[in-house]
User: Fold these one by one.
Assistant:
Number 1:
Amino acid sequence: MNIDNIKSNKFIINILIIFAILVTINALFLRYPIYVILPFLKALLLIFEIFIYGFFFIKFFNKGKIGVLESFGTGLIFTTFFFFIISFFKILSAWIIILFYLIPVIILFFIIKNHKSNFYKTINSFIKRPSLEYLIFVFPLIYASLPSSFYDTLVFHLGIPNLYLQNSGFISALQFLYANTSIYYEISLIPSVFAGDMVPRFFHFFIGIILIFSIIDFAIENFKIKKRNILLLTIISMPMSVFLISIVKNDLLSAFFIFIGIKYFLKKRVNISAIFWGFSIGVKYTNIIPLGIFFIAIFIKEKWFDSKKAIIFGLIVLGILLPLMIKNYNFTNNPVFPFFHNSFKSEFWDSSRSAVMTKDTSKVFHSFKDVIKFPYNISFSQLGSGGIIGALFLIFLPFLILKKEKNYFLLIFSLLTIFAGAFFKMSIRCWYISFLFLSIYVVIAYESQSKKIIKYIFFIIIFLNLLTSFALMERIFRSYYLFSGKLSIEEYKTLTFPTYPAISFINKNSTKESKILIVGESRNFYLKRAYQVSSPYDYSILKRYLKNSNNKKEFINELKKDKINFIIFNMGEFIRLQKDYKRMSENELKKFSSFIRTLKPIFRKNNLFVFKISYISQ
C-alpha cells in the first residue's frame, strides 16, 4: 500500500470531509438549518459512548476479539435495559440521562489504562476505510439531516421515547397500541431524543453506517469479495436502504441485531447469538419469522438438530423478552399485546381492532398468481412504504447457477425469509437483512462474469435505483422547499406535519405541568408536555371520556379527572381516521360533535384547533 492510500484511510480526514460538505451546503443554501451540525456531533458522541459501554461489558465478560458491531450492539442492549428499568419505576429525568452520558467518561479512563491497545485497534480496524466509502453516504445524510416528517416515525419510533420523556417513564396507554408492543429500539432512543429533535435522525444514520460497513467486512472475510465498492454501491443504491438509513424505522435495527445473532451462531457461540436474536424480536415481533427460517436453514445445512441447545437458545430468547412481557402484562393484562387478545382481555383492544390492524398490514400473497409474479413484483413495485429494491437481484442472482457458488446458506435463508414473510406482511422492508445478504450474492455473480454487457447493465440499474431513491425521498420529504429557502424550518415542519403549529403553540403557551389530549391525530413527536394519544388502530382516545358523558359539563369533568389542560384537535385527520378505521361509534361521534361545537379555541389554523379546558364555560 502506498503513502497516498494510507493517508486516504485516516478517519479524521473522512470526518472533516463530511463536516466540510455540511458547511458547504449551508453556504449554498443560506436558509438551510445551521443547527444540523451540532446534532450531528451530539449523535456521533452518543454512538461513541454506547460503543464504550458495549466494549467494557464484552471485555469484562469475554477475552476474545472485539468488534465495533458487537460492541455497539451490546452497548445498545445495555442502554435499552438501563432506561427500561428507569422508565418502569418512573424516575426518568434529565439528571438520570446526564448521568448516563457521564459514566462512559469514567469507563473510558479505565479502558485506556487497562486495554488501550485493544481499544484503539478495534476502532482503527473499523474506521480506516477509503474516503469514497464515507462519501457514498452523503446522499442519505442529506435526508437524514431534515426534520422528521414520516408518519410512522412521528407516531411510533420517535413518539414513544417522547411519550416516556414527558411522563417520567412508562405510563398506562391502553389506547396507544405502539406503547405496548415491541419497543426495545424506541426505549434505547430516549437519550438521543432528550439531546434534541434532530439527534435521533443522525444517531439512526450512524447505526446504518455501522451495519453496512460490517456487512462489507463480513462479505470480504467469508465470501472473498474483491470489489468492496461494488458491494457498497449495490446496498446504498437500493431505495430501501436510503429510506431506512434516512428515516428512523426499527427495520434497520432488526437487521442490525439479526446480523449479529447470525455472526455469533456461525462462530458456534450459540448462547450469545440467542441474546441478540431475542433482542431483535423485542425490536420487532415479526423477527420471529427469520429466526424460525434460520433454524430450518441450519437444519438443512447441518443435517442435525440438537434439542438441548435449541431449548437453551429458546430460554435465553424468552429471558431477553421477559422484561417487555412483564411491562405489557402490567399495563394491558396481555404479555404479548396485541396478540392472543381472546385469551388476554384488554379494555380497549378486541377482535374488531385486530381485524383493522391485520387488514392494514395485509400480506403480499392473496392468490397463486401473486406467488408466481412475486420475483417481478418485488423488483418493480413498492411493497409497503419504502419497500423498493430495484431489479439487481432479479437480474444477477440467476447467474449464481453458472458460478456454482458453494456457500449458499445465507442465500437460502434470505430467500426463504422473504418468501415466508410475504404470507404475513405486505411490507418487505421487515426483511431488510435478507436483502443485505442477497447483495453479497449479487456481487459474487457480478464478479464471476467477465462480459462488458453485464457491467453496463449493472451500472444502468445502479443509476436507475439512485433516481428511484431520489424520487422516493422527495415524495416523502419535499426537501427542495427547505433547501431552496422558500420555507423556513418552522414552515417546512408545518408542510410535512400539518399538526405541528398547534404543538408549537402548546409548547410556547403552556406550563411544564400541563397535560394535553391529542384528538384526531396520532403523530405526537415535538410535543414537550405530558400527553395522551391513540394510534390509528386503537379506538379513539375520546372513548374513555365520552363513556360517562351525556353533556358538555360531564365531558369536561371526565377530562379534569385526568388533569387535562389542553386539547389539540386536527379535524381533517379526525375525519380521515374515523372513515378509514372506525374508531368511534355513531353515538360517540354525535356526542363529541355536539360538545366540540360549543368550545372556544385559543388557537386556530384552518382545521387545526387548540382548546384550553379552563376557558370553557360551564
Number 2:
Amino acid sequence: MFNKTQIAALNTMDSILFFAILFLFFAGTSVAQEKPNFLFLLAEDMGTQIGALGTPEVQTPVLDSLAETGVLFSQAFITCPTCSPSKASIMTSRFPHTNNLRINVHESFGPSPNFTDQQLAFNKKLAIPEQIPTLIEKLKVGGYRTGIVKKFHLSPHDKFPFDVWIKSHSPSNISDFISKSGESPWFLLVVYDITHRPFRNTETVPSPNLDEIQLPNHFPDTEIVKKDWAEYLKAVQLIDSEVGGALKALEQSGHESETIVFFLSDHGPAYHRAKFSPYDLGLHVPLIIAGPEALIHPQEGPISELVSSVDLMPTILDYARIEMPPGLQGQSLRKILEGVPDAKGHDYIFGEVHHGAPDPDIALQERSIFDGRYRLVFRNHLNRTFMKPADNTDFELWKNPVYAETIKHRNEFPDEYQFLAERDSDQPVRALSFELYDINTDPWEINNLYRQLEYESISKRLIKKLKDWVIETDDRYIDATVLETELKHLESGTWATGDEGSSCFIITTTHRKRN
C-alpha cells in the first residue's frame, strides 16, 4: 500500500499514529466479517405441533430437517401467550410486567404509525419505555442492517428503527433484502401469520387424516372440532413450506455459511386453554436454532434444558459481539448451542397473562411457574375483570367453531365445557386461585393436583419460588402477600382443609367435581 520511501518520510509521531489507525482499520474489518447474520423466523399462534416434537400426523419436513442440522429445544417457552407482549419480550429480554407492554396494541406496519388519536393514546399506555433498549436498537448501534417482514404489532415505533419494512415474505423479497445488505451484517425478522385465525389454507399441502388426529384432551371429540384442529395442523404445514422458501433464498444468496437461523412461535394456537392462557398449550413453543458448525454445534435429538424467549436477545447480542445492556431478564444460550459440557438453561420458567384494559387495577392476573415437570398456576384478583380473546370464541372475524361446539355439546362433554367456561367471562364458572399439574403424566393438564397431600412439598416449593420472582422482578400487578399467606397455610398444616379462595378439584373416573 505504501513504498519504503513514503514510510521513511513519516516522522516518528506520524508513524505511530499511522500504524495505530491501520491496526484499528484491519481489526475493525475483521470484527465486521466475524459478525454473523441472523434470519429470525417467527410464526404466530403455533404450538409444538411439528413432526420433530412428536406430532406424527403433521408433515413438517423442512422444520424437522432444520432441527436435525441445528439445535431443537423441546422445553422452550414464551413469557406471555399473547401476540404483542410475547414479541416485546423477545425484543427486550424482559417480561411484560417489566417492559410495560402487557396486552395487545394496535397494529400499524411501516416506519411511521398510522393511528387515530384514540389508538395512539391506547398504544402509548403500553409502550416500551425509552430507557429500555430493544434488540433492534442494539443491532443498529452494532452496525447491523435490519429488516422486518409482514407484521409488527409492537409499541412504540421509534423503539424499532428497522431499515427496511417488507409487506410479503416471498423468497424474492428475502433474497432482495440479503442482496442489498452488501457487506454489512444483517438481521431479518420474518413473521408468518398463517397459523393465526382465520386459517387461509390452500391445496398446496395435504390435509391431515381426521382418523389419525389426536385432539387435546380438553376438546370435545366431535367432527367439527376435529376438522378445525386439522385446519390448524394444515396451517402448520403451510408455514413449513414457507420456511423452506426462506431457507432456499438464504442458500442461494451465498450467505448460508455466515447466518444463524432462528425458528419459533410467539405462543400457542387460538383455542381455549391455549392462546391467552397460562397452560402448556399457550406457553410451550417450538424453538430451533441452526447455523454454521463453527457457531452452532448440531445436537442429536431435542435439548431438554428449560429456555425462555427472553433468552433470545442476549443470545443474538452474544454472537454479534454487542455489549449486553443492564437489566436483561434472560441469558445467552450460546454455550448450549456450542455444545459446551454442563451448559444449563433455567431452573424455572415463568409465564404471565394480563387481563383487561391498560389500567392494571381492574383486571385479573395469572402467573405460572414450571420446573420441567410440574406447573403451578396462580390467579390474583379473581373478583376483577377478565378477558377472552375474540379469536378464541365464535366472533365472526376469526371463525373459531370450537367455542360454540363445546358449549353446544356441554351435556355430552361436561368436563370439556368446564375447561372452556373457566376462561369465558360469559359462562357461570370461575377459575381457581391455584392449580398444579404433572406434565410428565398429564401433558394436557387435566388433573389438578393442588391440595393433594402427596404434592404438598412441590406446591410449597413452587409457590415460594413464584413469590420470590414476583418480588425480585417487581411484578407490581401481583399481590405477593397472597402467596405469602398460602405459604403460611402450608407450613401451619391448615392447607389441606381448603377455603373459599383456593377451591380444588377431586378427580373421578368420569368427571371433575369442585370441592
Number 3:
Amino acid sequence: MRLTWSALGFALGLGFGGLGCVPVSPGTTTDTTSDATGCEPGSLGCVCMEDNSCDEGLICASNECIPGDDPGTSTGSVETTSSTDMTTEPGTGSGTTTTSGSTTEQPACDPANGVSNNPDCETGAYCSSGGECVDCSELAGDDSCAAVDPNTPVCDPSSGTCVECLEGQAAACTGDTPVCDGDAMTCQPCTSNSDCQSGACVLDTGACFPADSVIWVNRLGANCLQATGSNDKPFCEIADAVESVIDTDPRLIRVKPSAMYTKQIDVSSGLTIAIMRESDETDPIVLQVANADSIQVAQNAKVYIEDLSIRGEGPTTAAGVVCNAALLSLTRSEIIDKRGTGAISNDCQLTLEGSRLYNNSGGGIKATSGAVEIVNSIIGNNGSGGAMVSGLTLDGSVEVDILYSTIAFNFAFGPQALACSQGATGSIRNSIVFGSGDQNSVECTSIEFTTSAVDSNDLMGSMNKFFSPGELQLGWFVDVLGGDFHLTGNGPEFNGVAVWSDGDPSVDYDGEARPVVDSSPDFAGADIP
C-alpha cells in the first residue's frame, strides 16, 4: 500500500510523540532546542546547549550531557574516538582515549600470556609486566632479558631482541659452550686454546680449562719443596702436580721450562689435565726420565700436552708415552731418543699435531684398536733393522686420519713406513710416506692414500706421486739422522703433489701459511720450504 505524504507525516508524529527525553548516542546530531517532551538542552541525558555546555555537574560528550568527574564542572567537552578513528601509538598495538586533553595508554598485551613471544604484541618482541609491547632495551628488573629467558640474557640493541651473547659480553657463555660467536650472537664450544681465558681448551668437549684453578710447576722455584701448587709455591716436578689432582674437574698445569724434569708422569684414571708451559716462555719443557716410560695415561683420562720434549735416557727399552683406553693429545711436542717405541696406544684416541717422533729405537708408533690422528707432524728415523714396529704399526681395528705429515726413513724388520693388520681403516692425504730405500714401505691395503708421495707399488694412482725405493734420497731433507725433516731448497720433488681442501690446516709444521684456497696445489708432507 502506498502512503500519502499526509499519512507519512502522521506516522512520524506518532513515533516521536511517544518519546520522553531523547538520549543522544555518539555520532548523532540533534537540535539543541527543547523538543515536545520537555528534554531540556543542558540537562542530564539531553543534548548539550548551543555553546557545548551543560548544567552544573555535567559535561558535554558527543553532544550529550553526562555526569562529570568534577561536581563543580558545568562546562567542557570530552572527545571520544570511535573504533575506526583511534590513535595508535607506535609499538603499542592499541588505541588511546583522549579525555579533557589528557592521553591514557591502553594495555597493549596481556602479561599473563608470558613476557616473550606474546601473541598480543605486533611490534616489540616482549610484553612488559605493565602490559606494554617493548623491545629488549626497555626491559628492566623483573622484566630483564635474563628474567625473560636465562638462555638469552643479553640485549642486542640493534635488533631489540634478547640473545645468548654479544662480542665482549660472553659472561653467559659457560660449560661446553664458553665462546661467543659475535656474528651469530650465540655461545659455541672452544676449538683452540686461544678461545679460552685460561689458554687451554678441552678439545673433545669444547669446554675451557678454568683459569682460577691453575697448578704451577717450577723446578727451580725457591719454595718448591714446600709446594702447594700456587704460583708462589710451585711444585718441583710435573709428576707431583699431576699427583695432586684428586678430582675429575679439568685442571691446567703450567710449567716453567727452567730445568729438566726427571720424574715419570702417571695420570690416573678419569683425570682431565693439560700440561703446558708458562705463556710467556718460548723454550720447550724437557722431560727426561731414566729407564722408564716417560708418561703413562690410565683409562678414561684425558691428557692435553703442549711444547713438551720427551727424551730418552738409560739402556732400558722404555717408551716415550703409553696410553691405555684414554685420550692423549700432543701438540708442538716431540718424543726422541727413547730406547723403546716412541708412543704405544692401546685403544686410545691418540693425536699428534705439529709434533715429531724420531730416533726412537723401538719404532715410531704402535696402536692397537682406538684411533690415531696425525696432522702436520713428522715420524722419521725411528726403529732399527730388527725392530718390530715401523714408523707406524696398526694392530686391529684402528681408525687412522693422517694429513700433511712426513713418515720417512724409518727402519723395521717388516714394512718400514706403515704396517697394519686387517681391521685398520682411514685415510692418508697430502703426506710423504716411504721407507729407507730398500723395499716398498707400506703394507696396508685398507688405508686410502690420495695426493701423497709414496714408494709402494700398491699405491700408484689415486693422484699419488710414486717413487721407486731406489730413487729416495736423504738429501731431500735437511738432516735425517738428526731428525730435521725440513725440505731442502725449493723441495721440487714434493711441490704440487698435495691438494689443499677447505678445512685443511692453514699453516705447516712451522706455522708457515698454506695456500688456503680450495683445490690449490701444495707441498706434500709437514713442511713448506
